[in-house]
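Subject: for your reference before the review

Hello V.,

The reviewers asked for a structural picture of the protein, and I figured it would be easier to keep everything in one thread rather than splitting it across files. Below is the amino acid sequence we used in the manuscript, unchanged from the supplementary table.
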Amino acid sequence: MSSQPSLRALEAFYSVLETGSATAAANRLGTTQPAISRLISAFENYVGFQLFYREHSRLVPTDEAIAMRKDVELALSSVERLGALASNLFNSNAGSLKIVAPVSFLSGPLADVVADFMRLHPNVRVSLDSRSPDSARELVARRTVDCGFIQLPEVHPGLTAEPILKGHMVCVMAPNHPLAKKKLLKPEDLRSESLILLGKGRYSRGQIENSFRAEGIPIKVKIETHTVATACAFAKRGLGIAIVNGLLAGQFANHAVICNFSPRISVEYGFITSAHTPMSRLTEAFYKHCLDKL
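And here is what came back from the structure prediction:
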């Protein structure tokens, strides 16, 4: 046998089988009749036997050619599927996307964004995971997941962090709380109030404590928790005033009152990817979608 047949030779063979004519096959493939004849000749050299014989004005397949028909059709179909897959991957319409983010962020700001992205890319499989910030950093840095969302500032050497969404801290309380009618609360207003704060070690917790310290006002923490959902749940039951991330509070503060906290404490989230490799086309498409929607 000669060298492997080209894809074009397989297409020529199949088109002649379908049309019974080198001229018709040439018209179908957008080439010339001599080109089809050369491709068929090359394919015959490869298989080592004649594929067609002429009968009047038609090319009639030999028994051997007919026996090869299904396999050639299957080969061409596989190539076609590969081309479709490549096109889908190029246009971010296929593949899988693994995302890690805080659970409150997943169910809050990110929920509609992911839903919209999946409507635009229905063949993409999305995996959503919620981990601690430290675990999320390592998963993204090691490329176990494609991307994530984390509260800034972020200094992990294995990550690239792009700002994606900005908000500020708010106060959440029960509707019947004496301060519920105020639109803005300062540390002075909270001097005697029981507070519900997220656990120590968080960047925003340090900023809250600094704001009280700067005005010489003691901070009275009654409940410490690790989620905005829990903080809001206790606040709307009258156990204290929660100072929490305003980007996340809305989804949990139904039947509660939300007002701004002063001094303004900004909260910013970043879109994180591994610093060791560029984003895949699908991850980049999702990042651009987030920039547009968040």
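For the response letter, the relevant points are probably these. The chain has three domains: 7-90, 95-160+273-293, 165-268. The two ends are 60 Å apart (CA to CA).

Happy to draft the paragraph if you're swamped.

O.
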